[in-house]
Specification:
Two copies of one chain form a homodimer. By secondary structure, chain A is mainly α. The first copy, chain A, is built from ten helices and two strands; from the N terminus they run H-H-H-H-E-E-H-H-H-H-H-H. Chain A is globular. At the A-B interface, helix 1, helix 2, helix 3, helix 5 and helix 7 of A face helix 1, helix 2, helix 3, helix 5 and helix 7 of B.
DNA sequence: AGTCAATGGACTGGACGTAGACCAATAGAC
DNA sequence: GTCTATTGGTCTACGTCCAGTCCATTGACT
């Protein structure tokens, strides 16, 4: 009785070699706004331990990101590896090509994103938050509202991740970060228009308000509408 | 601005060595009922390719499972590696010990499970299902209803996975399989009582009915109640 | 009875990743 | 000015994992 489910359970044990996965992870931290321009990454020894890779491998990954223009390293005490103030622009891969490459996985990613993000909003609103968590949420919201067009994607991601964080479930946060990275390339292919951005900001505020007010039903519903907007935009653009 | 989110993004790139991860994956297939006793696993060459590990590594993993009593291999054409009819009983680790070990990750896993399973039920009810998918769901439901106490956990998992499958999102299915494995050890520590089992079966039927009827709201709500029951049982038992 | 295709079983050379030690530079503390 | 703790930079010996190849066994088909 072997059915389709084995596609899920017999999927690859590892996506690539440690080097590639490490690069991907560091890019995730930068592109999702977990570390912002000017920030210092943790020291190599500590970061290597946390990522569970050797320092050599981590350094190769950092070297690759240095060459790509994402980070810069300085030696000596109080040195470290710093995120560049000017991040490289994502290459605007032609949407046609993206659509062809990712069509298969697009529904997959969108479905998972929907489940994770609406669930996170609801779960966040269910918990009683600490003052630090409330501040953190509002800070991320304010940053996103103040974002320019070039910074918007990153700060938007940061806000959505912050919502996942305040659920108190690290696994949920990780899963959301992963699926968001999968959709990033596609989202970068869509031109960002100010009206859409304004509308997003309104919805963000409504979601955060509902979470802070402890209203799970509204938080979920509002997030659902927010995601539907992006999804419709995405599908329309790729048709 | 490095905050708590880096715990999620700077988490280990790989959980262990390929051997361990492969063993874990095969155990997942068996314990979640994706392959049932008597089934033949895919040929080593194919399975190694799908798991993205070398055949040597896969064979070591299979060897470990053979020694543990889960599978048996036969050579020659029409041979292969088969799941044993009599699976080893899970060792009943004392709940106290489990509670201590997993207390940190328990809320994490329960939160993620809640989000994924309620989301999956809703998403499944949103899609229009093929006849094969409807049959598959009902078959899994019937199997679970007919399950004995010893088989129940496995067939229950199989049913929940089937719901994830019919969302059409492999990533969602994988994520649910992973979180379920994390909770498995704990669930095995709880004695299974017939009344609880009967109640679960009723809820299962209600969830599947809602999915087949295309009623997302009811599917989510019913699944939520179902999960709440298990969660309450779990927490009460671990106190 | 013989054939043969598919499968598990075993071996080897090379590439990759790791652990650990050591070097070099830097900026604050004194 | 000197010292020193902390950080990135470099090297080496070792273990793991892998791709590829060939062998051994089996049972359905002719």
């Amino acid at each position: 009785m072997v059915v389709q489910a084995d596609d899920a359970v017999f999927r690859p044990v590892r996506a690539g070699n440690p080097f590639e996965e490490t690069v991907e992870r560091l890019l995730q931290a930068i592109k999702l706004g977990v570390v912002v321009p000017g920030d210092r990454l943790p020291p190599e020894r500590e970061l290597a331990t946390r990522l569970n890779v050797s320092r050599v491998t981590l350094r190769e990954a950092i070297h690759a990101l240095t060459e790509a223009g994402y980070v810069e390293s300085r030696r000596g005490r109080y040195g470290g590896t710093f995120v560049n103030e000017q991040l490289p622009k994502p290459r605007r891969t032609p949407a046609k090509r993206l659509a062809r490459d990712l069509a298969a996985g697009l529904d997959d990613a969108l479905t998972l994103r929907f489940v994770l993000e609406t669930g996170a909003a609801e779960a966040a609103a269910t918990r009683t938050l600490t003052d630090a968590e409330r501040d953190h949420l509002q800070r991320c919201l304010a940053d996103t509202n103040a974002a320019t067009l070039t910074d918007y994607r990153r700060l938007d991601s940061r806000l959505h991740l912050a919502i996942a964080e305040v659920t108190g479930s690290p696994s949920l946060t990780s899963a959301m970060a992963d699926v968001r990275m999968r959709l990033n390339e596609l989202l970068d292919a869509i031109p960002l228009l100010q009206p859409n951005l304004d509308h997003s900001n309104e919805q963000h505020r409504a979601v955060v308000d509902a979470i802070l007010a402890g209203d799970p039903q509204t938080a979920r519903q509002t997030m659902q509408e927010h995601l539907a907007g992006t999804e419709a935009l995405l599908r329309a653009f790729l048709e």
